[in-house]
């Protein structure tokens, strides 16, 4: 899901005059994402799932 969001928000509709510009925009996205990140709470307890 992380790479999907990165692609949708930065890469897909971006206009990058150089490779370094693309790298800088990805770095900016990663830094901002890391500062606002929230831990994921895992809810699966390890029991087997029922067959459908």
UniProtKB/TrEMBL annotation:
Source organism (scientific name): Winogradskya consettensis
Protein name according to UniProt: Uncharacterized protein
Lineage, opening ranks: Bacteria, Bacillati, Actinomycetota, Actinomycetes, Micromonosporales
């Amino acid at each position: 899901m992380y790479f999907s969001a990165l692609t949708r928000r930065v890469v897909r509709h971006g206009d990058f005059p150089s490779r370094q510009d693309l790298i800088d925009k990805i770095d900016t996205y990663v830094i901002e994402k890391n500062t606002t990140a929230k831990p994921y709470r895992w809810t699966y307890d390890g029991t087997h799932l029922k067959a459908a």
